[in-house]
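>> Question from a student workshop board

For tomorrow's exercise we were told to take the sequence and the ligand below, predict the bound structure, and bring the output to class. My setup keeps failing. Could a helper post the expected result so I can at least see what it should look like? The ligand is NAP.
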Amino acid sequence: MNKPLKSLFLAGTAVTAGIYLWKQRQEKPEMNGRTFLEQYGPWAIVTGAARAEGLGYGFARQLAGRHVNLVLVDILADELHARAAELARDYHVRVKPVVLDLARPDFLPELTAVSHGLEIGLLVCNHMFTPKATPTILEMDLATHHAMLDINARAYTTLVHEYGRQMVTQGHGGILLVSSQGGLHGTPYTGAYSANKAFQLMLGESLWYELRHANVDVLVLTPGLTRTQGDALDSYPAFMLMDVEPVVREALANLGRRHLVIPGPVNKLFYFATTHLMSREKAVVTTGDLMAQGLNK
Ligand SMILES: NC(=O)c1ccc[n+]([C@@H]2O[C@H](COP(=O)([O-])OP(=O)(O)OC[C@H]3O[C@@H](n4cnc5c(N)ncnc54)[C@H](OP(=O)(O)O)[C@@H]3O)[C@@H](O)[C@H]2O)c1
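>> Workshop helper replied:
Here is what the output should look like for this input. Compare the format with yours to find the bug.
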């Protein structure tokens, strides 16, 4: 490409990216004139909420700050009870910790036994399982693939089905699915996770359409790299990492306004680049190379 053409292309790309970011910042009007608590309270269920650094606890904190009572679910018993006690102490909300292995196909009755009689206005499906090591798809053993499907796909479907139906009947509510930027296109070295996250994204987007007129707001959040894992993400460029609080804030602020939130300007620009500036094939290669660098492959 000659120099004037290249400059024109870069200027055009910069303007388009600017318009894209500006449009993402535009807030849509509040739905139905209801307050957050009226639409998404008085109780919320948050899964995967046990770890102090995690996004689930971030959601629980900000919801408690909005006076929403909480049912918290996680497999980590001690941590979950500690988080529940902190929230009840600091925010004066009611908190019910439910220690559950969401890999079990029969987990639901144990959860509904606790949520029975509570008006659940918000479901935050946030839990996930992926092995700490990052085997390729064929290196990972089949039992781990199946466990991931149970936890990251089957359990999401079960929760959405149960509480989505309740919300339609009660006439209000919200469902927030925490997917990942890794679910937007193939993500080598975490391919099974990427497939699980794509499942969640498709489930949520379709559900959003189907519930548009039921006063139940569905939102899919696709975080990029977020500081939830100690120093595990240190080998990625720092500018790519987000803190938990702004990710959660942006998601909650867009409930009822959008169906998909890609948090933060860097993640938005990365999405813009991989969908507007390169082919899908190139996007997978770019992501794979970035992963290989971050994971020291
Ligand atoms: N952090 C990031 O960079 C990032 C980026 C994109 C998307 N996300 C998404 O954000 C969400 C939260 O991630 P996070 O980084 O905050 O991780 P996290 O703190 O590890 O949260 C996941 C929680 O789910 C629990 N869990 C795992 N298997 C379970 C099971 N069978 N039953 C019940 N609970 C189970 C985990 O327990 P164990 O610790 O025992 O497994 C953990 O407490 C996930 O959906 C993740 O995919 C995160």
